[in-house]
Amino acid sequence: MSNATMNRRNFLKIGATAGGGLLIGMEWLAACHPGASGPATMQTLNAFIRIGTDGLITIMAPNPEIGQGVKTALPMIVAEELDVDWKKVIIEQAALDTDKYTRQVAGGSGSVKSSWAPFRQAGATGRQLLVNAAADKWKVDPAACTTEEGVVYHKASGKKATYGELAEKAATMPVPKDVKLKDPKSFKIVGTSKTNYDLKDIVTGKQKYGIDTKREGMLYATIVRPPAFGQTLVSFDDSAARKMNGVSNVVRFDNKIAVLGRSTWEVMQAAKAIKAEWKDDGTLESTDDYKKNFEKTLAKLPDEPKRKDGNIKKGFAGAAKIVEAAYECPFIPHNTMEPMNFFAHVKDGGVELHGPIQLPEKARNTIADKFKFPKEKITVMTTRMGGGFGRRLMTDFIEEAVAVSQLAKAPVNVIWKREDDMSGGFYRPMALYKYKAAVDANNKLIAWHHHSVGVTGNTARENNFPAGAVANLQVDTHEYKSPVTTGPWRAPIHNYIAYSEESFLDEIAHSTGKDPVQLRLELLAQAKANPVGKVDYDADRYAAVIKKAAEMAGWGTNKPGVYLGFGSHFSFSSYAAQVVELANVNGQLKINKIYCAIDCGIVVNKTGAMNQAEGAMIDGLGHAMYGELTLTKGKPDQHNYDTYRLIRMREAPPVEIHFMENTIDPTGLGEPALPPVAAALSNAIFAATGQRLRSQPFIKHEEVFSMQKKTEV
Amino acid sequence: MAVFNLTINKEDYKVDVDPQMPLLWVIRDFAGLTGTKYGCGIAQCGACTVHLDGTAVRSCSIPVSSIGTQKVVTIEGLSEKGDHPLQLAWEETDVPQCGYCQAGQIMNAASFLKDKPHPTDAEIDNMMSGNICRCGTYNRIKKAIQLAAKGGDHE
Ligand code: FES
Ligand code: FES
């Protein structure tokens, strides 16, 4: 973010609270998006700092909380610059309430990144305002005043006053300009560990999630949807369902049937009693069809490459050696622990929405468009979410809830059965990656061809490593159209790219007799000295995490009885490198440990960051090992955790994580630790067995690697 | 439909429901205690774990008609002030991410710690592997259980 944006006149507003305290409003979104226009009023500001006369500091956090920890991390940034005692800070989740807040959005790994500058600015402005108030009162120079933990001091005269005592006066002062931000080296809150703000409510069962929403007169609802992607509803018989206990209504909309009633289980039971007839055009595909058709698609190049450096034909013509490999990746559902659900109440020409959504603003716009409600008649309250992973960037479940509430003329909470959630689509797209590389007589990588297809718009991240390090490089992708819906899934596309590319780099290293870590460092040195084309990453920061992870794992030191595999990746402006350490115990491979070095700039909340990185690695590992959703004629074959396997405690290895220390502004963290782990594991398996795992999930190659035996060794 | 009298967290509840309705939904939709979560409905994830006469069970897979006089305890009733050694250990270890699975994790751990106050790592793995955490907080869960176990007895 540029300073020009930060200095926008209307970015901050000062006012008094009803109780005589100080209110600092931030036009957070405008600060992030220079394009937003119009002067802000207190009513339109979407983040607040409130300093009560009692000295309590309330910070309203605008970003939805999906378990990534922003509700704790973002207020830490404000508290740091404001210079207050963290124990006196109260955090409130701000709603997307159209009466109060007009422009509020939230993103995935971008929350801390995009809030860093405006939140610091707001905190620092608040601090300066309180200092000015004290200086004015004491008739001293503000520059001679200092602050510490919510108190302003004037050392020379021995005077001091708490923020609470100064709040009333500060509310009448002009907004200070050009405030000084702290030197990151003097941070006292940022960079420490603050436990999850909702912790107490979570461990005592008081925390409310969307699925817990219940209102006077509300009906629970569950929906019967087409069992296969691409099917439509012909007719249905609901006579048995309507007679069941607790059922009050059955409504049809689009190709779906909703059953409403007084309890979740009763409507779920009744939904099973609906006899529906579905039809399709006879072209629905199964997993094997996708595989065959992907191969066919890759027989030709697309019209335009995504990226073209040098000339790969020439590169391959001058090759001393050519390496080729193909990698397959399956469809994967999100499986948030809290299944999809949403509360909707259509009334008075508008609708009240309440539930788990990663993009509340998008929800309101979509509903306004589709149902023709004026935007100001739509309110959205975001609940804490039982996981997001990208699934809650969609609004399909909200559109359904609105349709059902409208038809049934009642407030409803539409709750998805796990089976519906798992077969409900928006999957991580199935994809096939083919790579071809050439090395010259000096073992130098001179050509690289990425050719991929998947059920998504772009299967590549074309400006990512090794682009920039290879003279002749081409990236070609195809979108394969399918009625199966796909969408972002934690570290979208990066997860498969990192697996396939980083495994393929390992193949190149082994077939040219190079050390895999050394190969990467050489390529990065080249990208730094002589970058080819556009490059998104910083070669030095990239190389630093690679070296650090290698050092942590004792790479190259010949540890007896263990096998190491390496993987690294750049995503969401952050760098992650990992080493998986395997041991062969009585013929069974077991993960001893995963080592990880991350550079995401300044770490705001250490414990939260560790939790995120650790979770991302275990998540990535689990899905690489077990995750696969297959289809038979458009119909998902797995519906619940008896047939779809998620990683469990006995399969989760210890991890060791190191955050690179620097004073660079923070970048993404919720996702970047996930992508490298699958490659690091498959490369370790190769080191141990000589077997290359070119398709996920790895459990299909059980003969090579069985984690199930882990606890028995 | 039939009337059932239940004791949940020391309070008496009377519900008129289908005898087959799983305890989970009686707790959530009729008793209004939403700390117990729905994850799978088929005894595979552990999100719905509660205690029946002190033993951890998957409430999604137990019909209300089979409860009889057994006492039901949910996460809301695990301790009076939220100060069960596991709850404190969970706080100290900063375990949750999204938090959705955690009530089930704590209830499961609370029950098995009574029989095994000083579990080994492998025992924790085995006892806790019926509880899924999609956010991957397993290592912290394990750490928190060890921490609580160190603290002493769990009656
Ligand atoms: S909801 Fe009962 S075990 Fe999953
Ligand atoms: S903390 Fe999210 S599922 Fe366990």
From TrEMBL, chain A:
GO molecular-function terms, A-Z: oxidoreductase activity
Pfam families, sorted: MoCoBD_1, MoCoBD_2
PROSITE patterns named in the record: TAT
Superkingdom as given in the UniProt entry: Bacteria
Aldehyde oxidase/xanthine dehydrogenase a/b hammerhead domain ranges (all copies): 204-282
UniProt-listed InterPro entries: Ald_Oxase/Xan_DH_a/b, AldOxase/xan_DH_MoCoBD1, AldOxase/xan_DH_MoCoBD2, AldOxase/xan_DH_Mopterin-bd_sf, N-heterocyclic_Hydroxylase, OxRdtase_Mopterin-bd_su_IorB, TAT_signal
Gene3D superfamilies the record matches: Aldehyde oxidase/xanthine dehydrogenase, a/b hammerhead, Aldehyde oxidase/xanthine dehydrogenase, molybdopterin binding domain
PANTHER family reported in the protein's UniProt record: ALDEHYDE DEHYDROGENASE
Protein name in the entry: Xanthine dehydrogenase family protein molybdopterin-binding subunit
Native source species: Chitinophaga agrisoli
Native organism taxonomy: Bacteria, Pseudomonadati, Bacteroidota, Chitinophagia, Chitinophagales
Automatic annotation (TrEMBL), chain B:
Keyword rRNA-binding in annotation: no
GO MF term list: 2 iron, 2 sulfur cluster binding; metal ion binding; oxidoreductase activity
PANTHER family, sorted: BLR6218 PROTEIN, OXIDOREDUCTASE WITH IRON-SULFUR SUBUNIT
Domain 2Fe-2S ferredoxin-type: 4-78
Name under which the protein is recorded: (2Fe-2S)-binding protein
A Pfam family reported for this protein in Swiss-Prot or TrEMBL: Fer2_2
Domain of life of the source: Bacteria
Annotated transmembrane regions: none
Organism: Chitinophaga agrisoli
Keywords: 2Fe-2S, Iron, Iron-sulfur, Metal-binding, Oxidoreductase
